[in-house]
Design brief:
The chain has about 260 residues and is α/β, with parallel strands linked by helices. Helices cover about 45% and strands about 15% of the residues. The chain is globular and about 50 Å long. The relative contact order is 0.22.
Length: about 260
């Protein structure tokens, strides 16, 4: 038997909103997007929260965000995220998720965040939460700017593939490991471990959880980390499986990339 791990989705599992849209106002202040785009981001956030992160909603979010990312300066994006991370993300973190992370660490398990959002936002959030490593989407960068093409897309079945690859690399015993997600798109990830849990599940995932007797957790208490005991990282640096991706847009460019590839 090898070491155990706990794999967490990010949006609506650890944080109360979509990390792919949370930085829209700071990006406006930094000159990356317009006020109109900020308003559209707010609407997309509402649709995401009300409608759930099913495949159709993810497609719509990607279509919207893919229009924004191409040409963004990577250094500017990273600087904005670093400067605004705690103000933007800190109040969105579920207290219940933080407790779970603490409990898994206390039990000797590694905590891995697995998200379709980009590494430039997921990695800093993971470091803030004391995660041991992250799996996230990464996009192509040329001459210091995002091209809009996708290098690695951490979504649906690919999340499960990444977990299995990480288990092989790190020696994790997946049969004794845990996974948490809110979305039916993450069913493959939940099926990859011995102890799947659903968190604030969408309709499809709730139905499946009932059929398979998976535990259902309801997280409802976003709390600023500064108001509770800090979660220091267990290691000096956060290890990342997917490094150098787009910030805050995550897999949003996937649709645009596919369409460009189809018409090339």
């Amino acid at each position: 038997m090898g070491p155990e791990a706990a794999f967490f989705d990010l949006d609506k599992t650890i944080i109360a909103k979509s990390s792919a849209l949370a930085f829209s106002k700071p990006f406006q202040a930094g000159g990356l997007i317009s006020r109109r785009a900020v308003l559209r981001s707010a609407y997309a956030q509402f649709v995401f929260l009300v409608g759930g992160a099913d495949h159709d909603q993810m497609e719509k979010m990607r279509q919207f965000m893919s229009q924004l990312v191409a040409g963004w300066d990577v250094a500017t994006v990273k600087e904005i995220v670093a400067d605004t991370l705690h103000n933007v993300v800190d109040p969105l973190v579920y207290d219940e998720a933080v407790h779970l992370i603490e409990e898994h660490h206390a039990a000797g398990r590694d905590v891995v965040i697995v998200s379709s959002s980009g590494t430039d936002v997921v990695e800093p959030i993971g470091a803030m939460l004391g995660a041991d490593r992250v799996v996230a989407t990464r996009l192509e960068i040329v001459d210091g700017r995002y091209t809009g093409e996708i290098d690695y897309y951490a979504y649906a079945e690919e999340k499960a593939n990444a977990i299995r690859a990480l288990a092989e690399e790190r020696g994790y015993d997946l049969a004794a490991s845990y996974a948490y997600s809110d979305s039916a798109t993450d069913i493959p990830m939940l099926e990859a471990v011995g102890f799947p849990h659903v968190v604030n599940p969408d309709r499809e995932l709730r139905k499946l959880a009932a059929e398979r007797a998976w535990p259902v957790l309801i997280f409802s208490k976003p709390v600023a980390l500064r108001n509770r005991v800090p979660l220091p990282p267990r290691k000096p640096t956060l290890a990342a499986l997917a490094v150098g991706g787009v910030v805050a847009v995550g897999a949003a460019v996937w649709v645009g990339a596919r369409r460009r590839g189809a018409t090339a």
